[in-house]
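Pair request: fold both.
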Amino acid sequence: MKKRINKKIDKKEILENKIHKIYFVLAVVIGIILSVGMPLFSEPDGQWHYSVSTNMVHLSNDLSAYGEPVGTGLNVQKSAYQRGNHFEQYFENKIVKMPIQNIPRTNSIPPVLSSNFLGHLIPAIGVWIGYHIYPSAGVMIVVGRLFSSIISSFIICLIIKKIQKGKLVVFALSLTPVIAGTLASLTYDTFSYLLALLVFLITTNLLVTKQITWKRIASIGIVSVLIVLGAKTNVKLLLLLFPLVLFILVFEKFKDKRKIHFEFRGRKLWIFSMVILGFIIIAMGIIFTIKPSLIFSIYRIIINFSVNLSPSLSMNNIFLGLLASPYPSYNYMPYWVAGAWYVIILLSMLVDKYPISKWVGLGAIAIFFINFLGVYHGFLTFQGGGYAPAPRSVIMGSIYGQQGRYFTPFLLVLALALASSKIRLQVVSGQAVLWLSAMLAIVSNIILLFATLFGIYYL
């Protein structure tokens, strides 16, 4: 009997006390593999992120010396790989410095208090270190990736250690190819993801302890400022979690002290629902009167989710881009990898259960869908590829340009909703989910590297 109890304690100890260490080891190993092995500029707008990072440390250089435009994609490198002179072209040839005002597309240093500057700060330091090792684009990018990956992985390690519930969600999500590939790059998406994790950390610990302290208020203030200044636009939506959780915690304490019981049943529930519905109808009427074009926008969004206007199997889609493929057009990731990660993330969300107000869950779900609709609405006018006129699929309702990585941080919000102890669906063996996540992380990130290089050489 004692042996069984000790085994249970050991399993719990792994989850509580060692999971952050396991994450850090895996993240560093995967980060090194992807940083060194992946093609240069393997993130969307990779050349632009490199130019911003080098501009910030006064190392502006001419990418055309390597045959690269300040654009996006791996087409130029593809030829170099197939010719067999990729290392010579990108790693042996030194950069050609150029005045910053002559750099196409990004001919200035971004303002210090902006997402461009703050998001590229860690990559810029890494690029500067790489320059002093050997001044070639290849060395600078690889060292910049390594620096970004190690620093970011260490921060995530600390977050996993400090968070009281939801450790497995952060562990699994941070090892997906999309996040691992993002950390091992020069993109500003890394900083936005770290800020999203900090919001999840503070919110979760508030909900678990139900204690509002000055230290937590200060943390909320600091993270809020960083998000306003340094996060991507859609990630700023996560700030809605702070007032939502604080209001509900204060309200629950007030209700307990006053011994007030609010029940919405029968007639009260019907009246309340009608009032809310009336407000929604009036608000929508006012909005559509001010901006009638939104009616067509809503039509396009509905059609986009009701009809598959591009029925062929495309690599550039949200299903792959959410968890499995950082740059779907070039990664050639198999669909089963994405499916496996969806299952693992869902299981990790069902491990930890604790009392949460249903209003927190509903609010979290609302934030998730607001982000979803907001991103789609933001790309309503995007056509891509310089289409003129718009292709028939766009006219009929298809929306182009949105990418899965825009939604990845918001899976943390869904985790808050599913963590409620009122949802009885629960995974008992958290340790099994931990090791499944670790194994899938290793396999899927190796596939990411292999499939990308296979596509460059043979597809």
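--- second member of the pair ---
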Amino acid sequence: MIRLSNIRYQYPDSNGDWALQGIDLTVDKGEYLLLCGGSGSGKSTLGYLLNGLIPHFFGGTLEGQVSILGRDTGDLTVEDLFSTVGLVFQNTDAQLFNSTVENEIAFGLESLGRQAREIESEIRRTAAAVGIGHLLDRSPTALSGGEKRLVAIASVLCMAPPILVLDEPLAHLDWQGAERVRKILCCLHGQGTTVVVIEQRVEAVLTDATRCVVMDRGSLLFDGPPKAAGPVLRDRHLVPRYPAKPRFEPAQPKAALLLRVRNICYTIDRKPILHDVSLQVRVGEILAVVGPNGSGKTTLVRHFNGLLRPQGGDVVFMGKGIGSAGPSGMAGRIGISFQNPNDQFFKTKVEDEIRIGLKLSPEGAEERFRDLCTLFHLHELLDRSPYRLSEGQKKRVSVASILAMGPKLLVLDEPTVGQDGRFLEILAGLLLSLGEKGVTIVVVTHDLEFALAAASRWVVVHGGRVVGMGAPRELAQDASLIRMGALHPIGDALVGEGRTDTGGPGDLGH
């Protein structure tokens, strides 16, 4: 069904570097293939090959042959490939462009020439299956990252292509959304659909797949049954191993108050997003904001530096209200790494992007620049455009550029998305180290294992309200929060003090 023969590929602005090299891969009809590897290893590029975006859209230099259903993709039209290979992008914002969710799902069906009655029926069926029936009249731009991900998946699933390629389909999803998507993919695979999943959350998909391919530096490192993949996954740190115990005590109530949020309310498109939310952040603590998709987590933290103004209540930073200061007035004091890094970039080179922040805190700038490049593995990326990086690499640049400012409060919105296990370990260790030095950090995440490893306190948001606040290990086992869907059960082994890794592939093969 899919055959790649002696593939080499180079992006137009790659400075001579090959994104893919020596790729020989055959995917048979009805396979469920998990494609994994470190950030920037070539996974998304391989996905673009499978549906013809390379060479039809990206250009560059392509050597070798890619055939789908026995036909060379270079000879097929974009329309042919569109109906044969459904692709869910890693960056869903690049895929959603209609005014409503309903129109977004309808677009592909209309392009295939389906009748209006059939389109309406398919929209309702697919939206219900994916769990977004209540969002049909909403604008995609007003949705959370996880909700956008589900819309993008629905817009591809409704066309029922014989081949599905999904690039990090579980990214930004809460546990309920992730489980729903997993079950749908397993069902489609059982019905004969060929499924290719590109995913960093390896342990969530590995047991569903019939085959695992691991990439490294643009080449295939492993190709075989999932149960045999354990050693290479562990060796390459594709499943994170976090510190077994917290390295410092949580911030005490006596620590100075840095940020106070009091009774804030916020509405988007006449839909209440935040209801009477209050919380405090003290100097030196690492606070994780957790909760399901669409609960208001990102909306909440965007109030911290004035990106959003509360429609009720107030936000006070270091004893002063931020209402009049706004984002420009808070620059250098509160740094936010956005959920979508593309919304944050200003420069055409990675080096320039990081140096913007250094100008806000010039003392020791060059030493900090070198340290950040080493810590985030950016040396090879400095001359690249941040927009041309993988999503995981973009996240690293985004976090590094914010740290360069030396903010008193660091806010990271979904920093684990797109990251391989090795960088998750680095990031958790970095946050713990910064916390020991008195830096205050707020992390928005769906990755509760990461939140357990890095945070000293959790705030649980559900339905626009704070429904839980306190020690992570206690909240993680709170039956009432699990019942209401605010948190998912993660098991005693992970919550216990002896926990060292996330399990999964660690138990596969030796």
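Observation on the second member. The first strand starts at residue 2 and ends at 10.
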